[in-house]
Design a protein that fits this description.
This protein has about 375 residues and is α+β, with helices and mostly antiparallel strands. It is built from six helices and 25 strands. The strands form four sheets. An eight-stranded antiparallel β-sheet has the order 6-2-3-4-17-16-15-10. An eight-stranded antiparallel β-sheet has the order 14-11-12-13-25-24-23-18. Helix 1 runs antiparallel to helix 2 and helix 3 packs across helix 4.
Length: about 375
């Protein structure tokens, strides 16, 4: 194999695949890229066995072939090269020569045959999803995904496609983010298409959409793999198996105590008070009274703090505790603007949602804490 490629194009694709490359692995080949040269393209593949990304760029191919190159070292080295064409050539014993201007480096690769084979994008049942819609839904839900390995089905979000809507739900058992968008046409979808998308795949999708101007993502799946095609790039992910919890059962029906608040005011007040919350529980007390919402927190180590926000509330007093970080996460995802806090009583889940009806029907449910 021998190719010449522009530094700019190569570095762009190397940067796009960095999130997929396995940093600490017991399988050495997984910390390598697979390079395949043919026609006038160079194809790059990175995988950690659960997630893989295949991308390509223009190259002058002098000799077709394939090789593997240590991913992190190559990325760090190419970044330091001058802005000129780079020549990559496969030598004996899987060594790879990299020349650029007056720089000449040889890297130790591994046998192409060691690199795992990857699933192929299906031909049938491909659904087109608007890229910015999917990105918006990931931004509003991914922070609520569970990090505990033991809760396997909660390590991802549930995506539900219907002919005219898309919904995404994520929960860690203490909170739940639910976002829905209607009036989208999904051809080829009949009934409900439910998919559990792992968190790492969602994070990767979001950064891929951010680094491209592609308008639609092609989505497909087979029995074990999810496929997302973003322009020239193909992200594949192992599907999560198992049953996602019945989230509809926990969506509050009769939270009748409703207050509207400026999101920025609420976020700032919670951030101040949370400085004095218990480090483990992060619990903040919300006391709802006529005309104001009082926020407070205390811990034996750091002291206590209280803040208040003016409101138009006119009902019975109510005190409830929440994890401060959970509310801050929602306010970041909801963006600027007013939010509605909807409560029932001190033992029932609270619900937050943007006050203005946006393009997304967004609701966030938080379980209360004993304080």
């Amino acid at each position: 194999m021998e190719i010449t490629i522009s530094k700019f194009e190569l570095l762009r694709e190397l940067a796009a695949t960095q999130g997929v490359v396995e940093r600490k692995t017991t399988i050495p080949i997984l910390s390598n890229y697979l390079f395949e040269a043919g026609g006038d393209r160079l194809s790059l593949t990175a995988t950690d066995l659960d997630l893989s990304l295949r991308t390509s760029c223009n190259a002058k191919v002098k000799k077709e072939g394939a090789c593997t190159i240590p991913a992190r070292k190559l990325h760090d080295y190419v970044k330091l090269l001058p802005d000129a064409d780079i020549t990559i050539k496969l030598l004996e014993n899987h060594w790879v020569s990299i020349r650029c201007g007056r720089s000449n480096t040889k890297m130790v690769g591994m046998a192409r045959s060691n690199f795992p084979s990857l699933p192929v994008f299906p031909i049938a049942n491909v659904v087109k999803i608007p890229a910015q819609v999917l990105r918006g839904m990931i931004a509003r839900t991914s922070f609520a995904i569970a990090n505990e390995e033991s809760r396997y089905t909660l390590n991802g979000a549930l995506m539900v496609l219907k002919p005219e809507s898309i919904t995404m739900v994520a929960t860690d058992g203490h909170r739940l983010a639910h976002v829905e968008r209607n009036n989208e046409k999904f051809e080829g979808v009949s009934g409900e298409l439910k998919t559990l998308v792992p968190k790492k795949a969602m994070d990767e999708l979001r950064s891929l959409v951010d680094s491209t101007d592609v308008e639609t993502i092609e989505f497909a799946k087979d029995d074990s793999t999810l496929f997302f095609r973003i322009g020239q790039r193909l992200l594949t992910s192992r599907q999560l198996t198992g049953q996602f919890p019945n989230f509809e059962a926990v969506l509050p029906k009769d939270n009748t105590r409703i207050i509207s608040l400026h999101g920025e005011d609420l976020g700032a007040a919670i951030a101040r008070v949370a400085q004095f919350a218990d480090e483990r529980s992060r619990a903040v007390r919300l006391k709802l009274e006529k005309g104001e919402l009082k926020l407070s927190a205390s811990s034996t180590e750091t002291g206590e703090s209280e803040d208040s926000i003016e409101t138009d509330y006119n009902g019975e007093p109510l005190t409830i505790g929440f994890n401060a970080q959970y509310i801050i996460d929602f306010l970041k995802a909801a963006g600027a603007g007013d939010v509605r806090l909807e409560l029932k009583d001190s033992q029932s889940a609270g619900q937050l949602r943007p006050a203005e009806s946006e393009d997304y029907k967004y609701r966030y449910i938080v379980m209360p804490m004993r304080i």
